[in-house]
Design goal:
Elements lengths: L1 H13 L7 E7 L10 E4 L14 H17 L3 E2 L6 E17 L20 E18 L4 E11 L4 H15 L10
Parallel strand pairs: 2-3, 2-4
Antiparallel strand pairs: 1-6, 4-5, 5-6
Helix pairs in contact: 2-3
Length: about 180
């Protein structure tokens, strides 16, 4: 039964359950009046300067599109010149490991004399890539950051899984944005 539970745990982890988007935090300027801003622009991602992002170019463009959709849904207008707000995206991709630890309940049962020490051990369950996305919102006139949010998520392979994950990540990223989506 214990081995069965361990196998179920590993399967759930490998399917991405338990690795949903996690909002790390958000910060808001106490003096900013978010209702006074009308326009925005996402500061361009220069993929040419970061060669390891080249294979993810479509995903990064989709990320920018999703942020644009979320801002437009909040009543902002996307412009190319002199926006009220500049949105800057930061991305960090790391390789991470998921481990589990054996417990005394997992140790074998002996009927004879046991004259040695048993100690719990950690074992590797999964190696995966995780992405941390940071979104800074800057007041263009003051050149001052007025809001920031960070979220972390497991990077899923495959285009459709990746797009679904990006959509969920952007929603989580902007969940605590001071201006809510207009109906």
């Amino acid at each position: 039964m214990k081995n069965f539970m361990r196998i179920v745990f590993v399967l759930l982890l490998s399917m991405g359950i338990g690795h949903s988007q996690v909002l790390i935090g958000s910060n808001k300027s106490p003096t900013a009046d978010f209702k006074s801003y009308k326009t925005f622009k996402v500061f361009g991602l220069d993929i040419n300067n970061v060669p390891e992002f080249e294979p993810k170019k479509e995903s990064l463009n989709f990320l920018v599109e999703e942020i644009n959709k979320q801002m437009i849904a909040r009543g902002y207008e996307k412009v190319s010149d002199n926006p009220d707000l500049i949105l800057n995206i930061g991305i960090v991709i790391t390789q991470e490991e998921k481990t589990a630890e054996t417990s005394f309940r997992d140790s074998p049962r002996y009927m004879g004399q046991r004259t040695y020490h048993w100690q719990s051990e950690k074992y590797l369950v999964q190696v995966y890539k995780a992405g941390t996305v940071t979104l800074d919102v800057v007041d263009n006139a003051l050149n001052e950051m007025i809001w920031q949010s960070r979220t972390k998520s497991m990077i899923k392979e495959g285009p459709q899984q990746s797009y679904d994950n990006i959509t969920k990540t952007v929603k989580k990223l902007l969940k605590k944005y001071p201006v809510k989506i207009k109906k």
